[in-house]
Specification:
The complex is a heterodimer.
Chain A (H helix, E strand, L loop, with lengths): L4 H15 L4 H38 L15 H11 L10 H10 L2 H7 L16 H9 L2 H11 L3 H32 L4 H7 L5 H4 L1 H14 L11 H4 L10 H25 L14 H20 L7 H33 L2
Chain B lengths: L9 H22 L3 H21 L3 H25 L15 H21 L13 H9 L4 H30 L1
The chains are: A mainly alpha, B mainly alpha.
């Protein structure tokens, strides 16, 4: 019952519209819009409370209490923060490129939303099930680089521009090990469809067969989301807040929330590719598949926060050297070893 | 039933919308005086081309279009900004005065593309697109087209090594 609750809700809506005499094509379009708006709501609500989670985790690691006063256990703190930011004036500095400056904080939510559309939340629970899911996620994810960069450029501020340049350098160089790391998983599962990849992990999760790829993906993922220890993009001791320096009020809040939306995407892809997606470990099927998916996803998110509040920020040249001289060769070696192993195991007859 | 939805060639409608987006944004790439605006319009134009690929069932090509061009464009922009020395950004993408040379090149390109599309034998019934196009592409790349594939790989390796060599040389000069 609980396993297929979302599928049943979708069916109820579909039959309700069909009963009203809506044509089938229109019904499917309406249903898709409902699904996508549900995903958008999911992303925004999550981003809001992940900020709270981040503050609580940070407080715990630094032996503090964190927010406690607004709402029960401080749960409404971030909601209140966002309300305050909505009420603030959006300052448009002199000499900015007005249209790009205002457009970019809005567009920054497009890549995460497009990515979430193909991620399988549970058994048969994918909004858009396409054959090239992995490739689609990588392609759409690469679009956010130019949005960050354009925001930095449009601000007409040297710190913003340097931050934008760093975004391009960092995201382009860490996209390579990210893609090459995922390639090992694709080689073993023999499919680019995210559902097929999850099903291929029925016997053993890919984190055990591809541990190096998992580590590479995790490191590159932290870098792609611009989080510490790779948050040079907004290294406040050097360049104030990077591309967001000139943004105030809701413009800044959108970038801030987008960081958490991107982190969710990276964690969800990590769950699907390495942690068995919605598959239940040890045959614990009585817990619905989508609950397992979210448990694994939030564990990865917690891991990200743990890393952020444990390690200091890297230096720019170290970051680039690490990406190109360690991660890229390592991921290439991983692909080579994976290919050789697949060939050998096939020869043995596994 | 809503009769207004019947009998519309949806692919045709999408084709005309996407084509209009491509043409308009490509014109804006040329006519924008600010090079960053040009580049952002270029991104829109490339994404619309990816949309056309999707209507033709070429999903793989569409995703390649988004991935490669969006990534390449970022680098292009960075280079553009670092190499162009202008005080006013609105003078970074000016028209040049090479009327005859530019006109000749434009005419040549028009002639070549026109000739190529005239030579293609369009058949009325194209073969069905395979369900899993990535597999077919991979098989073809590693069997029939393996030599061009390897040559491209070699070329990219040479480029990478060359880039590293040039970068190293500059650094050695700066130290001495």
């Amino acid at each position: 019952m609980l396993e297929s609750i979302f599928i049943e809700i979708a069916d109820i809506i579909r039959y309700w519209f069909l009963d009203l005499g809506t044509p089938e094509l229109l019904t499917e379009i309406i249903l898709m819009l409902i699904k996508l708006s549900a995903i958008l709501g999911f992303i925004i609500v999550n981003a809001l409370w992940l900020v709270y989670m981040e503050r609580k985790v940070a407080a715990y690691i630094q032996s503090r209490i964190g927010p406690i006063h607004t709402g029960p256990k401080g749960l409404l703190q971030t909601a209140a923060d966002i309300l305050k930011l909505m009420g603030k004036e959006i300052i448009l500095p002199d000499g900015i490129n007005r249209i790009i400056f205002i457009l970019m904080p809005i567009l920054i939510f497009v890549p995460p939303l497009m990515t979430w559309a193909v991620i399988p939340f549970g058994r048969d629970m994918t909004a858009v099930d396409i054959d090239m899911g992995v490739f689609y996620i990588l392609a759409v994810g690469s679009l956010s680089t130019i949005i960050f960069w354009a925001a930095g450029w449009a601000s007409n501020n040297k710190y913003s521009l340097i931050g934008g340049m760093r975004v391009v350098a960092q995201m382009v160089s860490y996209e390579l090990p990210l893609v090459l790391g995922l390639l090992g998983v694709v080689m073993i599962s023999g499919s680019l469809n995210l559902n097929q990849i999850v099903i291929a992990q029925d016997n053993v999760w890919f984190i055990f067969t591809q541990p190096i790829a998992f580590l590479i993906y995790l490191i590159a993922g932290i870098s792609e989301t611009n989080r510490a220890p790779f948050d040079l993009v907004e290294g406040e001791s050097e360049i104030i807040a990077g591309p967001y320096t000139e943004y105030s009020g809701m413009g800044f809040a959108l970038f801030f929330l987008a960081e958490y939306a991107n982190m969710m995407v990276v964690s969800a892809v990590c769950t699907v590719m390495f942690l068995g997606g919605w598959l239940a470990p040890f045959g614990m099927d009585f817990i619905p598949s989508w609950v397992w998916f979210f448990l694994k996803m939030y564990f990865i998110i917690f891991l990200f926060m743990w890393i952020r509040w444990t390690y200091p920020r890297m230096r720019v040249d170290h970051l680039m050297a690490f990406g190109w001289k360690v991660l890229v060769p390592l991921s290439l070696a991983n692909i080579f070893v994976t290919g050789a192993c697949i060939y050998i195991f096939r020869g043995i007859g596994w | 039933m809503l009769p207004m939805f019947d009998g519309i060639d949806w692919l045709g409608v999408f084709f005309y919308i996407l084509s209009a987006v491509i043409v308009v944004s490509a014109l804006l790439v040329v006519f924008s005086k600010n090079i960053v605006h040009s580049v952002l319009w270029l991104v829109i134009s490339f994404i619309a081309v990816a949309g056309i690929f999707i209507t033709l069932n070429a999903d793989f090509l569409a995703l390649i279009q988004v991935m490669v061009y969006a990534g390449a464009i970022c680098i292009m922009v960075v280079l553009g900004i670092m190499l162009i020395k202008r005080d006013d950004m609105n003078k970074t993408n000016m028209f040049n005065s090479q009327l005859y040379f530019g006109g000749a090149v434009a005419l040549m390109v028009t002639f070549l593309t026109g000739f190529a599309s005239y030579k293609i034998n369009y058949s009325g019934n194209p073969p069905m697109v395979p369900e899993n196009s990535v597999e077919s592409i991979a098989t073809l790349l590693l069997s029939k087209y393996v030599i061009p594939f390897e040559v491209v790989a070699l070329l990219l390796t040479v480029t990478l090594v060359g880039a590293i060599y040039i970068a190293r040389e500059v650094k050695a000069d700066a130290d001495s």
